[in-house]
Amino acid sequence: PRPSLWYSQSGTPNVTASGAYDAEARTYTLTLKQSMPATPKQPAESKQPMLMPFKVGLVGRSSKADLPLSAFEGATEGVLRLSEAEQTFVFEDVAEEPVLSLNRGFSAPVNLETGLSDADLLFLAANDSDSFNRWEALQTVGRRVLLGAYERRMADGAAAGAMDALTEAELSALVEAMRAVLADAEGALDDAFAALAVKLPTSQELAQAIECVDPLVLHECRSAAGNFIASQLRSEFEGIVASRAPPAGEAYSPDHASKAKRALRSTAVQYLAKLAEDDASMDALVSGAYDGASNMTEQLSALAAAAAAGTPCSQSLLDKFFAQWKDDKLVMLKWLQLYTGSDAEGNLANVQRLVAEGPVYDINNPNSNYALLGGFASSAVNFHAADGSGYKFHGEMIQRLDGINAQVAARMVGPFIKFRKYDEARQAMMRAQLEMLRDTPGLSANTLELVTKSLDG
Q1: pTM to 2 decimals?
Q2: I want to staple 253 with a disulfide (CB 3.0 to 4.6 A). Which of 56, 258, 281, 401 is the partner?
Q3: Which ranges carry the Peptidase M1 alanyl aminopeptidase Ig-like fold domain (predicted)?
């Protein structure tokens, strides 16, 4: 296969991997199969196998270390060339049963299905020497756990915030793998990697895997999982907040080590903020992280954690930030986005007051609209409110904006474009707003085109 096929064939390749260990022969056999999805003007049967480089390693189940690979002269990792629809690779003299670590460093940009169990993935998350595969393992298990929790919640109609026994057991296993990552961050592991590794998959990513998603239920499942992780890893996160705090008087530095410390400390504060509603000491910790910040990065990080979690201190921190930066219009766009994106129930009234009274929001400023409406649309609780009030506000703002700046108004149609992705009730409410916009006399060509195409599917 020619490398040029990556440019001439559209679509992302799908690759499945299956492996088997023969203890008696001391061999590990790996089979890889690739396929290409059908895309417009390119049926699947017309597409040829691609050339793909797969960096591979085998992690010993007992030793928890990379095993030497006979195919690469005893090195612990190497690159396999997949060039046929199906190929088999045999590794000899494998001393113990391994767990497959495939596509290290994201060496091939493909959709990969390894068939590994949650237990195997969590083993890799704790023991793999490859950072990308550790992260991918945690994300994969996180997706499985949260999607399973969502499905069970939708099936049994459990109350908001409730967590079934299976979800708690699965999350407990995930927590232990995260604990291993945080422990390694006290050694040689990069803080920036650890900060990413212990984060749950985003609601937007999870929603892509669900047909007719109820965004509020998904948000509640993810929030409950985050609260559980925060409670289980509280001491580790508190230790990180203390150990990564900048020494008094230390000047801000943009070097990698300093940025990595800030990133991990920020992640720890985000988790601990989830406990602040019921624990005054955690509320004080979040407030202290803001007050002790020596730069705007740390200020915004603590403010974002407080606003997202709706901590008792969140309003006072928003007020402090406003008082300090109100004369800097660019900085206030950050404030506006955080303020409007809050998941605090009833925040729509605050957003409407900002629109009516200012002075932060300026309808004639494109970036001000992107911050306000983009932030609001990111709130599962308020944008996707069950009564449709969030959609109504967003639709009316688009209608109003269209007469001022049609290009900005057209961009703001974005949150409505995939309305068919949501549950039937929300589909109907979003459709109603699109129809309202379509029927608006004098609607600009830009906005009308997007609205019409969305309605036509």
Answers
A1: 0.91
A2: 258
A3: 11-114
